[in-house]
Structures are given as C-alpha cells and as structure tokens.
Amino acid sequence: MVKKNACIFISGRGSNLKNLIYKSRENNFPIKIKLVLCNNQNAYGLKYAKKNFIPYKLINSNSRMLDNQILNILCKYKISIICLAGYMKILSRRILKEFKGKIINVHPSLLPKFKGLDTYSRILKNKEIKSGCTVHFVNEKLDSGEIIVKKSFFLNSKEDERSLKIKTQKLEYLAFPEALIKIYRYR
Ligand code: GRF
Predict the structure, then answer these.
(1) How far apart, in whole angstroms, are the C-alpha atoms of residue 155 and residue 48?
(2) What percent of the chain has pLDDT over 90?
C-alpha cells in the first residue's frame, strides 16, 4: 500500500498526534506523517514530533505571509492530507480551497451539536445525556463539513469537564484513525 503523506496541525497537548504517530506505524494504515505544523512554540505536542524524528515547523499565525508559508511547506513535503488535531486557528479560504476535501478535523462533541469552543462546559450546562466526538471534513463554516465518523457515550450524573474530556478523547483516539481508513478505503 502506498501511504498518503499527511501533515498534522497542532496547537497544544498533541495526544491525538501521539496516537496517530503510533497508528501510522501499522503497515496497512493509510497515512505516513511527514510533517507537524504548530502555531505555539510551547506546545507539549511538539515533543512527540521530536521524539519520533518527524519534521516540524513552527508557524506564526499572526504573520501576513502565513498562507504562503504554510502552502510552501505543504508543497515541499508533498502533503496530500491535513489532519487538524487540536489546531486552534481558523484556516484561510485560500488554504481551504487549495486542499479542498483533504482537510479533516476532530471535534469533541456530537456534531452538529456544540460547534465551536468551550464545548465541554456547554455540554454539561445543557445537561446532555449523550456526548462523544466527531471527525469531519473542514469547509468554510466552523465545524460544519461532512461528517466521516462519530462516536458516542452516555454521561453519568457525576460527570465534570475533566471526566468528559477523558471519555471524549478516548473515543477520538479510535475515531480519527478510523476516519482516515474510511477516507482511503476505496481510493
Ligand atoms: C481534541 O480533544 C479535539 O477534540 C479538539 O482539540 C483537542 C486536542 O487535544 N479539537 P490533543 O492536543 O490532541 O491532546
């Protein structure tokens, strides 16, 4: 199997990156992680790129040259899929257009419910009985692209943000790889 070259965008902890690095070692996993892009020099997740000898690039999300910088490096590494794994910035229209249908994101709710930030607190406030995660294609509208994989669990009465995050991320570690497999199954 010829693996697709992937770039993972991160901003923080990078636990999904860590999981994807681990999964991508499997022979029949569809992607090879060629590059990590990060907009935060203190991101813990950079540790996983360094430890696994994956090239990484720090980007300044306030730079006016950001799009050119990102597109040049994606071209240099022949990237054919972008995985947003906790990347906290909105991608420009230009990047969305250049990589149309080739950018996916993981969101910590059952989309279309609870798009946007502060997801866990809103889920608890709303007294949801079920929650989970969604992997979806990225388009111009926030957290609104076509859904690839959704996974859910039931909340209990003692649920707090911490427990909700742990349960949600546990499902993300299954959903993200599953989504990649699903995307490339028939290609
Ligand atoms: C994930 O839980 C995802 O739902 C959200 O950002 C979080 C990133 O976590 N988009 P990590 O950096 O992969 O640990």
Answers:
(1) 31
(2) 95
